[in-house]
Design brief:
The protein is an alpha/beta fold. It is built from twelve helices and 16 strands. The strands form four sheets. It has a nine-stranded mixed sheet, sandwiched between helices. Helix 6 crosses helix 7. The radius of gyration is 26 Å and the shape is globular.
Amino acid sequence: MIRLNLTKNFKKNLPNFDLLFQSWYITKRYFVVFFSIIVLFFVSCSPKGSKVITDIHSEKDSVCDNTFADTLPVVSEPEIIVPADKRIDVYLPLLRGKNIALVANQTSIIDTVHLLDFLLSEGINTVKIFALEHGFRGDADRGVYFNSSIDEKTGIPIIAAYGKNRKPDASYFEDVDIVVFDIQDVGARFFTYLSSMHLFMEACAENGKKMIILDRPNPLGFYVDGPVLQEEFKSFVGMHPVPVVHGLTAGELALMINGEGWLKNGIQCDLEVIKVAGYKHSDRWHLPVKPSPNLPDDKAVLFYPSLCFFEATDVSIGRGTLFPFQVIGYPDKRFGEFSFVPKDIPGMQMNPVHEGETCYGVDLRNSEEEKFTLKYLIDFYNKFTDKSKFITKKRWFNLLAGNSELYRQIISGMPEDEIRKSWQKDLEEYKKMRKKYLLYLDFE
């Protein structure tokens, strides 16, 4: 009887589950409607002339400037999904029945298959390939010009879009409907792939062609640093007023180029960006394929922004070794205990600085540093007995720096913290502009 009474009392005190379920169901429906309204509002905002295919297969068409990533709800992803690799359901429908020109190189990989081979296997009519610096297969050295050719495997024409033909003329677009850009960038202003992207955007705009960017993560996308390029120092190693480490993916920079009116005469490219799924700017992205012959691994990419300035000096940064952009040396034992001898390496580096000479300096391969610094540049300058012989290509140094101030600051002996103060104002202004074009959750 006691057990029975307890049971009756227990049932009597139970909540009304029918009522609870109805309340939960109604609340859920209101939440879904509210969430949908919020998403639709933000989906309507992206740079003019541009479309963004998002993680949920929707489009953003807009005329308003807004920060996408910091305002949209964060959805956790199990992995970073590169569009060219595993988002084929998003971009293949855009290409079917069209004549496609592919801007690609050795980094344009779907798992272990090249994007070109994959598109052909899917029946996509790829009529030509545009090859940038380092060539279609990524085996051309820095600054080495190469001729147009035929891809041996597919028989498709490869057009050399480098040197005098950096921006192909109208004749190259007559049989093209869409240009697909799939190139892995490294996140430093002087890496020329994004300069080429700018010129292709301009050519597409001038010739009424659509451009689709299959976006990829930025291996240096977790910070922003360095002097912002000044207009008078614009060149192929720096076409945009952005810092040395710009913190943007190719797709984000393309949106910025359109949104800020940086194409010739402010024309707009008919642009569509296919987003990376699951990527955040705070992520560290391991490059599955080396982006150029002399950036063989992640460590080289991390040091590339800091060491590239040495290219305008009489100091070796390891070209002609198997570890370029990871060592620094000069033929003088006063510069350090570590030593290496640069030599010709076919397909990687010919006629390197101080070829055949023993260079002494520092080995950075085990360094934990990840971010841009001037300390190595300043240290090696200070060790030169005849300091007039340190920077051998002043104009080239200024183009890499994006200004003439850095040259004067280095030779005057200014410490790094003082040099950094000189570019902070421009850097903060850039950061504000950058926020408008982010497609991914930022690092700060």
